[in-house]
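hey so u asked for the seq, here:
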Amino acid sequence: MAKAKTIKTYTYSWEGTNKKGQSIKGETTATSIDLVKAELRKQGLVPKKGKIKKKSSGLFSPRKKPITTKDIAVFSRQLATMMKAGVPMVQSFDIVAQGHSNPTMAKLIYQLKADVEAGGTLASALKKHPAQFDDLFVNLVDAGEQSGSLETLLEKVATYKEKTEALKTKVKKAMTYPITVLVVAVVVSAILLIFVVPTFAKMFADFGAELPAFTLFVVGLSNALVNNVWLFIGAIVAAIYSFKQAKLRSKGFREFLDRLSLKLPAIGQLTTNGVIARFSRTLATMFAAGVPLVEAMVSVAGAAGNSVYKKAILQIRDDVAAGTTLQASLAQNKDLFPNMLIQMVGIGEESGALDEMLDKVAEYYEEAVDNAVDNLTALMEPMIMAFLAVVIGGLVIAMYLPIFKMGSVV
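ran it, structure tokens below
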């Protein structure tokens, strides 16, 4: 039996105009440019001359730019703005995609547009891309489509994404600065121990003088590092890899890290405030969208970002489903949820303005995170400078001690 011949297809990018004369861009998979032109004409599009190009592929193809949370937040805001201005959804997709700086995100928007044009809902189109649009995003859009207030819900989603992304950025900023300085200190110290200290050690050996104890210690440390440099590098790489794998594969290890992050001095309070802010913001957004409280708590638990709080929120969901008020359920976890949140939730439940109260709580704790990051940075700067002075300055002093000693003898 003859083997069927495999037909090779390529991805072509194109530009054209529709029946209204509007410019449109997109991508089509076909075996040749002629078939791309034929497909475009079937859709009522007129391709522009010289604007159909085969995209590069294979080993030397450009690396795809990943889609970030910021890209999703910008997309949400732009789509909300367009639709609120009365621009049809399909046309909004074209405008947003054409103005996007990330080609990968633009391709995703065109895929969403194609699904909607085929008769699907926006929520069903988003659900096909779980890596970019989580359950919270999809549920809010679905609620907006069902209630006929999609523009309003998209605006709420955009605000939610912008707020949560800003919060994550602030927390990362607090963590990144000391880690970066520590890495720089380790690299500089390694360079001194591997390249500079051996030169001084050879010079001291030629003098034949007795070296101070501190200098001998640094020289010994240098010799150990030079003789086992690849062993040290391998140990560091293995430690980092093992940490990442353990965090990825071990649920128990992740839970341990989450518990630890809540107990560390300074960092613990910052982490707690961040989780409370996300909890309040997410629940406020879901509740304002008309999502039932019990159903909303599932998305809230996923957005918490900490396994300790995730377990507590899921337990609260079960309590609420059994008939307990949200305030009473939160009060049973006073060690995790602050009294301010509990009281504000109680006021919101009594007044029927739970989403407004939760928004106020979210704003308070987001500001608390902002202030904590600034205070932590201000506090750590002198500590980091002192650390660098002790480490780098100590190495320099150890090398110059014998020279000072010989100078005093002379």
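The longest strand covers residues 10-17. The beta strands are 10-17, 23-30, 46-47, 53-54.
lmk if thats what u needed
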